[in-house]
Amino acid sequence: MKGNREQIYEFVKLHSSVNANHGISTNEIAEALGMQRTNVSTALGELLREDRVKKSSSRPVLYSLTEAFADEEGAFRELVGYDGSLKYAVQLARAALLYPHRGLNVLLIGREGSGRKYMAEVMHKAAVQQGLVAEQAPFVMCDCMDFGADDTATIAELLGDGVQGGMLAEAATGILFLHKVQFLSVNVRRKLLRCFVEAEDARELPMIFLSCDDKALDVISMLEDHVLAEIRLPSLTERPLPERRKLLEHFLVAEACRTKRTITLESEVLTCLMLFPCEKEILTLKTQIRKACMNAYLRDYMDHGGELHLYISDFDPSVRKGFLNYRADKEAVDALVKPQMRYFYQEGGVTVLAPEMPPAEETQVSEPQIRTDEPSPVLLFVFYGQGVARALSDTIEEQLHRGNVYAVDIPYEQKDEQTYELLRQKLLAIDRGAGVLAVYDQKVLQQMLYTISCETGTQLRAVALPVTRFGMEWSKGAAIADGVDRVYRMAAESLGALRHSPKKVIVTLCTTSEGVALQMKQYLIQHKACTDAEVIALSLSDRNLLREKLLELMQGAVILCIIGTYDPDILAIPFLSAADVLAVPVERLPELLRTQRMEKAEVDFDEMFRCLGDHLEYVDIGRLKEALMELAEQIEGKYPMSLDTKTGLVMHIACAVNRIAGRGVSIENPHREEIVQKYHGVYRDLRKYVAPVERKFHMIFSDDEMANIISILMQIQE
Question: Where is each PRD domain found (predicted)?
Answer without folding.
Answer: 615-718
